[in-house]
What we know:
Blueprint: E1 12-16, E2 25-26, E3 52-54, E4 67-75, E5 78-85, E6 88-90, E7 95-98, E8 103-110, E9 130-131, E10 140-143, E11 149-152, E12 165-166, E13 180-181, E14 189-195, E15 203-208, H1 215-220, E16 225-229, E17 242-248, H2 263-275, E18 299-300, E19 303-304, E20 319-321, E21 324-325
Parallel strand pairs: 3-7, 4-8, 7-16
Antiparallel strand pairs: 1-17, 2-5, 4-5, 5-6, 8-14, 9-13, 10-11, 12-15, 15-16, 17-20, 18-19, 20-21
Amino acid sequence: MKRLCIGLGLVLILLWGAGVPGAGVAAAKAPAKHDVSCRPPAATRLIVEPPDVVVGNLPLDASGEHELILAVHKDSERYCYRYTLNGAEQNVAPAIRVHRGEHFAIRIVNDLAGPSSGEHVASTALPPCSPMNMPAAPAVARAGYLNHTIEDRYIHGSPADTNVHLHGFEGPPSEENVFLSTLSTPMHACEYHVTIPATQPPGTYLYHPHAHGTSHDQVAAGLDGVWIVEPDQPQIARSAEHVILMRYRLPAIFDNMFVPNTDAFVYDAATHETALPIASPVPYDPFNPPPWPVTYPMAMGAVSLDPTGCNGIASEPNLALDGTDAPATLQVTP
Length: 334
């Protein structure tokens, strides 16, 4: 039997085959009370697919662009995007559907430290965002893949910072700057102006925060979703498609309930790598790489990696499918 390997902070997306095409998504009117709820769907054991947002149906902002406004909230251990869809408040990251050549805007509003005015102003009133503050950090050189030298700089970002990254986007970095900081302006909001390239392959992609030093926790705790580039000609009926996003359940629960500290393992591995003699880089074709030169299992003292390489020292973490604990049922038409 094959095992499915999923790492913390890593999301597996299945586009099987979501529902009704998305209608207009608009900025919510300023709520009377700051609602930070990020509660998951009801535990019905039925998979509740994420809402569909079709960018061509989004309302126009003050600049005449279709605009999606996602406000980032934190509720206890959970993060979520809050937005308004068809007049109703939502907190499940939407499936954003685009076509090649489409132009639209995404506004990321940082409400982690409290309500931001950036959610409720015209797009033309938003000041431009700047890159996040990257404090100087010493570079640590070490041998990487096939002896190619890499430099690490360990930077601790603000846990209150966030932004967005369209993973797999093939447009220019100026439209999808992964270094922007929502904390760089008084409104704590960044507007991304995106054009999907005509050469972007149709498919299912992931969007998630990319603020350095904080993205791992935010992704693992629910701040991610899918963006789908539709084919030029529909291949199957929309009703036959199903979006399933698979991740650790929140809060994460391990059935072994005892996870030893691996700091010593990491330290010993780094010390060992640093002490290795420098060898000449091995030339390779990135489209036809040689086999990875390390095999499992590895061990250090009493700490061993799972021989399958799936879950490290943790055994069988519980999973959630679109926020519903597995096992769960997906209802489809005949």
